[in-house]
Structures are given as C-alpha cells and as structure tokens.
Amino acid sequence: MVAAAGYRRWPRDTAHLSVLTAAGHRGRGLARATASAAVAHALSRSLLPQWRARPDASRGVAAALGFRELGTQLSLTFRPPGT
C-alpha cells in the first residue's frame, strides 16, 4: 500500500479524516487523490469533513482540497512524576 485515507465518524455528524502516504511515494498527488475520495464519501453521507493537520505537507493537501484553517490544536503527553 502506498497511500490510504479514511475517516472516523465523530459527534455532531463530523468525519475526522486520516491520510497516510508511504515516505517513498510522497509528492505525487496520492494524498490528495485518496483524501478527495474520503471527503466525497463523507459528504455523500451528510457528514462534515474535518482535517486536523499539523505537518506543513498535510496542511498543504488540506488547503488544496479547499479546507480552511480555523484554529490550532495542542497535544500533550502525560508523564507521571519520576519517569
């Protein structure tokens, strides 16, 4: 497999997208093609596609598909004291 995309249904009829492209196959439009299909599938089921992109490349694919940035996301990892 060189590229895949899909979504998980979240509350309020949201489709949270996930897109993966194998490192050796990036830059060929595969992420855009697979993500476009996932977005179309979600829309056909009256879901609102959501793309949470942090890496610049992912943000570029999202922008190419018409997504707009509306905010930022902060991810934290908990480390128990003493670890």
Major beta sheet summary? 3 strands, mixed
CATH homology group? Gcn5-related N-acetyltransferase (GNAT)
Average pLDDT over all residues: 91
CATH third-tier fold name: Aminopeptidase
Number of strands: 3
* C-alpha end-to-end distance: 37 Å
Rg calc:
15 Å
Low-confidence sequence ranges? none
- Judged by helices, strands and strand pairing, the structural class is alpha+beta
Number of domains: 1
CATH class: Alpha Beta
User: Could you tell me the strand content as a percent range?
Assistant: 15-25%
| Main β-sheet, spatial strand arrangement | 1-2-3
Describe the protein's architecture and organization:
The structure is a single chain. By secondary structure, the chain is of the alpha+beta class. It has one domain: Gcn5-related N-acetyltransferase (GNAT) (Aminopeptidase), CATH 3.40.630. The chain has two helices and three strands; from the N terminus they run ββαβα.
SSE order and pairing:
Layout: E1 3-10, E2 14-21, H1 30-44, E3 48-50, H2 56-64
Parallel strand pairs: 2-3
Antiparallel strand pairs: 1-2
Give a short overview:
The protein is α+β, with helices and mostly antiparallel strands and 83 residues long.
Note the main attributes of this structure.
single chain, 83 residues, Aminopeptidase, 3-stranded mixed β-sheet, 23% strand, globular
